[in-house]
Amino acid sequence: MNRRHVLLGGTAVATFAVCNAILWRMDEPDEALAETFEVHKTDAEWRKVLAPDRFAVLRKQETERAGSSPLDHEKRRGVYHCAGCDLAAYSSDAKYDSGTGWPSFWQSLPNAIGTREDHSFFMTRTEVHCRRCGGHFGHIFDDGPPPTGKRHCLNGLALSFKPATA
User: Fold this and answer.
1) In the chain, N or C: fewer CB atoms in 10 Å?
2) What is the pLDDT of residues 33-75, one digit of tens each?
3) Nearest-CA neighbor of 68 among 84, 88, 53?
4) Between the CA of residue 161 and those of 44, 104, 158, what are the distances in Å?
5) Is 153 a catalytic residue?
6) Do 85 and 138 form a contact (C-beta atoms < 8 A)?
7) Per-residue confidence at 132, pLDDT binned at 50, 70, 90?
């Protein structure tokens, strides 16, 4: 191995590191999109009340592995709440099996969600979050069933399910 190989290898590693840092930063929420929510906590306060996997999804906009949420297969009647602040967000009446591996709904409950453009991963998507605490739920796509044609593709970790009584 000569000096040229070492220099080219070092340049490749440095380029990869810079590109990786840029891509990683693109996943971070844009500070300009910061909103004020009724429920506000610091990251330290959220970490005290959320399990690490829920914190990662709700507060850091991570995505759980497809097919990993028991809520994807939940069939009972009831209401899905924000796992961060317990706001009722989705009814089982609007849930359907999208085949994606994540709980999917064709609409939310009234005044339950907020949305914003998400420009991560070199695409534009509609991010959906809890309107009360800002917790990240997932994304909304235009390939859902009637009557809305929308697919609210959500992380099960962002939700808690409360079955209907009687």
Assistant:
1) C
2) 457 899 999 999 999 999 999 999 999 999 999 999 999 999 9
3) 53
4) 25, 13, 10
5) yes
6) no
7) very high
